[in-house]
Amino acid sequence: QVQLVESGGGLVQAGGSLRLSCAASRTIFSINTMGWYRQAPGKQRELVATTSGGGKNYADSVKGRFTISRDNAKSTVYLQMNSLKPEDTAVYYCKAVYRWNDYWGQGTQVTVSS
Asked: Exposed, middle or buried by CB within 10 Å (0-12, 13-18, 19+), for 96?
């Protein structure tokens, strides 16, 4: 079992930055894949970024603006979001894949005003 708690969301103006954090209930050293997803009103949940086995993957819409990182010692995964746009407004969810099971956090709201 893995519990995930996101934090760091909020309201920011376009062009601003936010850093999201995802704290895991167990050491993430043993969790190969962790990622961030988002869901805007009326839309399906979509991948934002993942980190797995040392590699990182980003949605085209966030490449060059968002950076995913992990601190194994703190059991925390981060999403640094720069140059935010109104279309980045969504609930952001952290996900961990552990022993072939998917675990999700409760989500954190990010709102970007124009």
From this structure: buried
CB atoms within 10 A of CB 48: 24
Beta bridge partners of 110: 10, 90
Percentage of the chain exceeding pLDDT 70: 100
List C-alpha distances in Å: 33 to 5, 41, 54, 109: 16, 26, 9, 23
pLDDT of residue 27: 82
Tokens found for residue 94:
């952290």
Burial of 82 (0-12, 13-18, 19+ CB in 10 A): middle
Confidence band of 53 (pLDDT split at 50, 70, 90): confident
